[in-house]
Design brief:
The protein is an alpha+beta fold. Helix content is 25%, strand content 23%. Strand 7 (133-138), helix 4 and strand 8 form a beta-alpha-beta unit.
Length: 197
């Protein structure tokens, strides 16, 4: 079993940031899953939306309210991106290959045109480019450490801005680096900075 040299499932589970056990797929066995396994889960019924983390398939967890908020956010960000021809926006069904054993799927993402050859979005099952902005929605089926780790992984890959929406506190944690973040309350304003000028 992979996971930073884990010798017990408790250590392995902690390495996966303590996510709820019902989100960890047992087929294939944790620590042995591959990109092909992930694609098969996506492409065959019931079309399970998973991520690949250290050879383990992890089910993504969403909520109705989170979907409503993301829909509104996608409309606003999409309008700005289109009006200024900044790049392309992606709904939460695009898996990004951050490294061979790590495929993450943010709930929303944006990538500027310079990420694509000839200003065209490639037709690929696993995105090989890195988004400039990723948006995640935390809920009762996720853990804080899970999103902290996920944000770090995206920044290591080249992401420059991340928003983690917390439905419970009705706030957004805005990351401008893996180590630097600030909280924006419900009445605050999200600023795209240099990523979405």
């Amino acid at each position: 079993m992979s996971g930073a040299g884990s010798e017990s499932f408790a250590e392995f589970h902690a390495h996966l940031c303590g996510i709820p056990l019902d989100r960890i797929w047992l087929t294939p066995p944790p620590g042995t899953a591959t990109e092909a396994d992930l694609i098969a889960k996506w492409e065959t019924p019931p079309h399970s939306r998973c991520e690949l983390v250290d050879g383990t398939l992890i089910e993504r967890s969403g909520s109705f309210l989170g979907s409503v908020i993301l829909g509104a956010l996608a409309r606003h960000v999409g309008r700005i991106v289109d009006e200024h021809d900044l790049g392309a926006c992606f709904a939460g069904n695009l898996p990004y290959r951050l490294r061979p054993d790590l495929i993450r799927v943010p709930w929303f993402s944006f990538a500027p045109w310079e990420q694509f050859p000839d200003d065209e979005v490639p037709d690929e099952k696993l995105a090989t480019f890195t988004p400039a902005l990723v948006v995640e929605v935390a809920n009762t089926k996720t853990t804080t450490s899970e999103y902290d780790r996920k944000v770090r992984e995206f920044f290591v890959a080249g992401t420059r801005l991340a928003w983690v929406i917390d439905l419970h506190t009705r706030s957004v944690k805005v990351y401008t680096s893996a180590q630097k973040s600030k909280d924006v309350e419900e009445t605050g304003t999200l600023d795209g900075g240099k990523v979405l000028p």
